[in-house]
Amino acid sequence: MKGRVNIITDDPIMGNLLEVQLADAGFEAEYFSSEGLPALYRSLRSPNILPAERERMLVISEGSFLRSEKGFHCQLRQHPDTAGIPFVFLMSGSDAVLSFGGHTEGLQSGADGYVCKPFKTEDLLAQIEKVMHAAAKARTFRSLNNFEAELSQMSLYDAVRIAELNCKSGELHLSFPPGKIKGKIFFDRGKLIAAETAHLAGEEAVFSLIGEDAGHLDFYGHENSDTVRQIRESNTALLLRASSMSLESAKLYYRIENADEVLHIRSRHIPPEIEKDCGKKNLQSLSALIAEGLPVRKLVTEAGMSSIRAGALLMRLLDAGIVSAASEPRSPGTDSAPAAPAPAFHPPKFIAAVLTEALRKAEHDKTTCMLTFVKNRQTPCAVYFEKGKLVHAWHGRVFGKKALYRIFQDHFVEQEPQKQEPRKHERNESRERDESSERNEKNPVFRQAQQNPVNPVNPVNPVIFPVPVTVREDLNVLFAEGDNEIAVLSRLRPASFEKMLALNPEASEQAAGIRDRRGLVYIAALVQQYGTVREILDASCMTDLETYKHLLYLFQKGMLIPGSEKKAGIRIITDSGADLSPDMQGVANVTVLPLSIMMYDKTWKEGSDITNEEFYRIMADADMPPQILPPSEADFHRLFGKILADEDILGVFISSDVCKAFHHAATAAVRIRKNPRRNARIEMIDSRLLSLGTGLVVMEACQKAGAGWSVEKLRAHILRIIPTVRVFVAADTLKYLPEEKGFKGSGSLGRIRDIFGIKPILTLRDGHLTAIDFVRGAGNTRKLLGELILGSLSDLQTPITAGIMHSGAEAEAAVLRGFLEQELNCQHIYMSHIGAALGACCGPGAVAAAFFPVVRD
Q1: What's this model's pTM, rounded to 2 decimal places?
Q2: Residue 176 φ/ψ region, left for φ over 0, alpha for ψ in the -120 to 50 degree band, beta for the rest
Q3: What whole-number distance in Å separates Cα of residue 325 and Cα of residue 607?
């Protein structure tokens, strides 16, 4: 076992599902609800648990359990026996925004990690491996009373986590230059209790030290019983707040590129929500310095608070239009000067008109609602309005303006629309809108969406507020910026989306020159962490175009160089008609979509709603053969959209003459390829085979994909193998062989043969099952089957890959396996059951073999 994982959630479906998935991945997993936390806490602190066992434990918890100071996470951290157990948090989208500032690395916790729901099992497993490795690294400091490191080698986050996970007491010094102490942080049994710098104390001192990027760290272990406790917040919550403010502060240096610029107060009225979030005293201090005419460089250092808090507060004031810089365009509505007339609204060239009209209508009608978007949607997304003001947007795991502009890109117009004449009778149209609002006072946008089936907007009402305010700009400004972003990115993306970037190790002088421009420093850090342009865009808290501009600037300054290309993984897609056994389906890079079985006007999903035994039992009493239905085109399209963000795709499906899964998958693949915003490598193959005939080809593709083959090379290899695959089936009866499919000998003649115990031998020819002979008795069946298998190989010493499947004939399958092992050079033999696709023709009691000669690479 890899270790023990304790799952904490009040969602029993999520808990049980994770329990099964983690057990399959090799962990000992157990699910607990909130009511079971006291028992879990006692078990984790039990003296019967050996230290080595406790070191291999991990806790997965819902994000809601993170918020309480007396929560389960904090209880474990405060006890020396359990402080080193790492946590992974399952965050909902809103939790991620509220707690982590929307940044994918916002947790910044060293030994702890998080994943946002919905998530892939692979992402969760990767996060588990990461935090367990980090926790093991932190435990190497357990026996050390003192330790030291350079800030370039160990971040302050890491040092805090090492102290917390090892329940250390003492003080952490940050020195720069050598010998000069810049600040101290005090710990009591792993809990951060106080901090001080030359001018700050408590939380502000911690935030100030976190903003440092150079220096030497020294930890001195001792008891801190005399230290006055200045910080009540948990370590995790404090670091999360620091991370969020760092991100907001980084945006300031993109908004105002010249740090010597002076800001101007445009309004003395500060909204109550900003005053509550930022603190009245902090705002007064900043306002006084702004009124004195100090530049931004001094505002963030002389406001009596940490530089990251000052930067974050200035960003809030700029966004709200309370202060402005000379280089910023003035937005109307401040009380320090007459408001300039609002610019005329010009319809965007590249954003779909139906989208702009829906947003305009929500603004005009002062609606409080959530609008979701359904046209060609690959990623869940929505926009929130509060009393006609667009306040929040999300697109997958992205929030704010970045999410809104991605929604615009999902609904962009490829060619510029024809110019339209101004609308006449504006007053009459306004009166009609008002009357419409009265008729549907509750939600006027719903009525429009219901009447227009092609409208991509699907309003949902009522909306539970408050939601986080992540968008503050006027809708006209958002349309203009979003339209410009689409125009620029549509040219840049095809050429550079998958390119690799790396930091230039010889550009140390240029790196020193951007230290004061935190936006550039932030993007450079993302380049070092991720590499590809697409991953950098997804991870950045800035909009895609802002991130591109920063990358371009760093490239022009010689700080970035082309990186070595990373090969994308390949996901193998197939349908359940391939009859892969559970062991075969457990291969990491294969995904199986279930076929549907329809009998008696009822439909079951193969493998989940109905077992093979139940299928054959129902089939035996049925008056007509079952229908085998493929997954829909929409199912394939959704699946491809999720996978292509990280992997290329090769689809291998059973014969299209038996099931239309290949046709639906191929149609979905064509739609994906037409999307100009995807650099998709996706190939579909009709194997013209059934059962393990297709399954063997799928396993061959999985092995070669794991060896690093490209999709193109893999497709050519599979097409070369398919004609060499042989499938032979010994059915127990002719009852299920339908005459309309070309089987001679079914019907009345078949019933006579059944009476005399005559069994058909079937094979696959060009995607069709064909009866090639009829024999009587089990012994003759085995003999003929063996002769057919041996006769299909020119050399019995040729290495082959084989598969044996059966429909309730385990003894016959075992005999056939023994024959193959004795007579042929089998490199591998897979065992499985015959599913509905082949079972609908051969019925219960059948045994079959599939094999192909191994092809040299």
Answers
A1: 0.41
A2: beta
A3: 63
